[in-house]
Amino acid sequence: MTEKKMKNPLSLQIDPALFETASEEEKAQQVTMRESVSFMRDAMRRLRKNRIAMISLWVILLVALIAFIVPTFYPYTYTKQDVTAQNLGPFQYSAKEQMKIDKGMSVFPHIMGTDNLGRDYAIRVIYGTRISLLVGIFSALIVIVIGIIYGSISGYFGGRVDMVMMRIVDIIYSLPDVLIVILLSVAIKDWVSTSQNALIARLGAGMVSIFIVFGLLYWVSMARQVRGQILSIKKQEYVLASRAIGATPARIIRKHMIPNCVSVIIIIAAMQIPSAIFTESFLSFLGLGVSVPMPSLGSLASDARTALRSYPYQLIFPALSIFLIVLSFNLLGNGLRDAFDPKLRN
Amino acid sequence: MEEIKKGFTPDPDCLVQVRNLKMFFPITTGFLKTTMLKAVNDVSFDIRRGETLGLVGESGCGKTTVGRTLLQLYKPTDGEIWFDGRKIDNKEALKNFRRRAQMVFQDPYSSLNPRMTVGDIVAEPIDVHHLCANKTERENRIRELMTLVGLNTEHATRYAHEFSGGQRQRIGIARALASKPEFIVCDEPVSALDVSIQAQVINMLEDLQSRLSLTYLFIAHDISVVKHISNRIAVMYLGRMMELASANELTKHPLHPYTVSLMSAVPVPDPKVSRNQHRIVLEGDVPSPLKVPSGCPFRPRCSRATAACAEACPAMREVSPGHFAACHNL
Asked: Which residues from B are below 8 Å from A245, CB to CB?
């Protein structure tokens, strides 16, 4: 063997002398750390891709912004009556206001007209929307808090505890909510009218009983779903591992079980909001909701019914508002479900 | 074993001593009818400090239940567990025991919470037992543990699903080591892994044992793996212990008819030896643990069974020094 062997031109043998070792700096350039993907981030990425859900989210944000910011600077209030400006159409002015305009003073237009007592309709619809959103968010909060605590305790401890707790849920599930709202609002009428708390007095017996009913009845479906999730998570080995370490049940529920139920919780909460808004509008329409002069989308629609032929816009505006809110929340809920649980889609 | 039960004095050489452990599960077998599933029935053994006790047997024989009951993950139906000279029977002893005894699980996929970062998983024993005074100390300990099991410390912020099976099992081992335990129950830690990864993990467990002076209870169904890592091996069948001897003795000179047939089924990587080997094929299937045969549970499948075997269950006795077996016919 000679030192310099003729290399076959077709040989793929590589001459190591042609190479030089990489410097530390060059090595460092090759090391690329992939960004860590958490479950939440992954779900949010899927949600952002869903155009319908994103449009719904923006609509909800816009409506919420209008409902909470516009009343702070709007020149009319929902209680101020003007007998000279009854049942005006959108952008119409009363004779008195027309005189002011003729004199060169500026008058803020009634964007949605006025109602039969001469109150500006736009601000009343905005207040009604505000009530609806508050009801939706409040009921979702109640559902989340009670549903998670109840469902996780029932699922974690199982056995007899689970059986008793789930039978209670079954009983609550079978109670008719509308009937209970009616009964409650009659029962607590006196208490509410003499209440020292200004907020309770202003909301009225109907509204307070709606909230109580949400608190009493609406958490059951969340509790059932969370229990179901916990039952399946309980069998996972990481829960056993945590017990072997010596973690308390509270820690296991908090650190291992609830984070793994998050998708179900978010989906149910998002679905709960529109159904609560709808229930409130429906009860207000029947005259069980907010007390006058506080408007709600349901009570506005109910009042508009009497003069439907002459002033149809008085029904259209609150109806449109309910439609927009409920539809957006429903579509967002669907989007969240798809994002958090891609397997459920089909 | 009866005389031991009364006035039991713990052996200072032994870290773990199990006496007459029984674990029965009630199973609903019909309308309002429950039958006791005797997963572990009257099992006693000692684990000496620093040794590895292998526990082998077919699936469903109660190996995993022994490990889990030993760690008080199930409340034993009967029996005593002594750890480091103390009986585990009150809350105080249990809390101390939980820190000093840990477990490595079989399935590296379901044993790590998918919503927690690797750092948090590894630090869970630290958080539960408040072992670190502040955040920096905790971070340092996580880094130390991850280095100990051969993981990249920069991966502490990642989630478990971003790792391979072998890496995930290393995370599980790091978690078990976090509270500086003396005793670790390894419940089939390698059976879910590839053979090449199995060797790595086994070698790592051996290395950690010598570095941290750990004591293992190594549960597996693969006898060649158990033989490699264990000092002594115990054989279980239908919830009862059949034979207990040093790893060498048990594999070379098995005494109990069940162990003999079990050893004959172990594949030998030498075709010449393998050809001359006599494979004992047992007749029938393992009986349902709900209907354990009377007397010796192995009786219906045993070639040496006699009338006496159906009468009483044989107790473990020392056949030769250090070699225990439960059989009437030895």
From this structure: 98, 102, 124-125, 128-129, 175, 179
CATH 3.40.50.300 in chain B is located at 2-230
Is B103's CB within 8 Å of A241's CB?
yes
Check CB contact under 8 Å for A37 and B162: yes
Q: Considering the entire predicted model, what is its pTM? A: 0.78
Peptide bond into B125 cis (omega under 30): no
CB pairs under 8 A between A and B: 69
H/E stretch holding B218: strand B215-219
| CA–CA gap between residue A222 and residue B164 (Å, rounded) | 35
Question: Which of the listed CATH numbers 3.40.1280.10, 1.10.3430.10, 1.10.3720.10, 1.20.272.10 matches domain A121-345?
Answer: 1.10.3720.10
Q: How far is A247 from chain B (nearest CA, A)?
A: 6
Taking CB atoms and an 8 Å cutoff, what residues of chain A touch B184?
A: none
> What was the ipTM of the complex prediction?
0.85
Could you give the CA distance from residue B178 to residue B119 in angstroms, rounded to a whole number?
11
A33, A36, A241 member nearest B111 (Cβ): A241
Its sign, for the CA torsion A186, A191, A195, A200, is negative
- Please write the tens of the pLDDT for every residue from B26-83: 888 777 788 888 889 889 999 999 999 999 988 888 899 999 999 999 889 999 899 9
Which residues on chain B are in Cβ contact (under 8 Å) with A160? none
CATH class given for the domain over B2-230: alpha beta
Instruction: Determine the 3-state secondary structure of B184 from DSSP.
Output: strand
Contact across the interface for B73 and A246, Cβ inside 8 Å: no
Half-sphere exposure of A102 (CA within 13 A, CB side): 7
Q: Which phi and psi (to 5°) does residue B187 adopt?
A: -90, 95
